[in-house]
Design a protein that fits this description.
This protein is an all-alpha fold. It has one domain. About 75% of the residues lie in helices and about 0% in strands. Helix 1 packs antiparallel against helix 3 and helix 2 crosses helix 3.
Length: about 100
């Protein structure tokens, strides 16, 4: 995949490519840290409630758990895991 860009005068294509690669690597590290944080939150919820995040999501989406704030926090952590996992996977393939 090619990303169109204009090479500013005085900058070599290799220099620009290196900066782009460095930016992708940096954001990949950030994405991995965010993913790890959300995974840790999910793991904490799993231990506290004795069910996997997958089981929780099934029950939450079926409406059988109620409206406790903690369920919404767990749902947010599960969604964060999903989002940052996808971002990490995309960035890993760009390198």
């Amino acid at each position: 995949m090619s990303y169109p860009h204009n090479v500013p005068e005085g900058y070599a294509e290799e220099e620009i490519t290196a900066v782009i690669a460095e930016s992708i690597a940096s954001h990949l590290e950030f994405a991995q840290r965010r993913l790890s944080a959300y995974q840790l939150h999910c793991s904490d919820f799993e231990q506290r409630h004795g069910m996997s995040t997958e089981e929780f999501l099934e029950r939450f989406e079926a409406g059988t758990l109620g409206d406790q704030q903690e369920w919404f926090d767990w749902y947010a952590a599960a969604q964060g895991t999903k989002i940052w996992s996808r971002k990490r996977d995309i960035l890993a393939r760009l390198r």
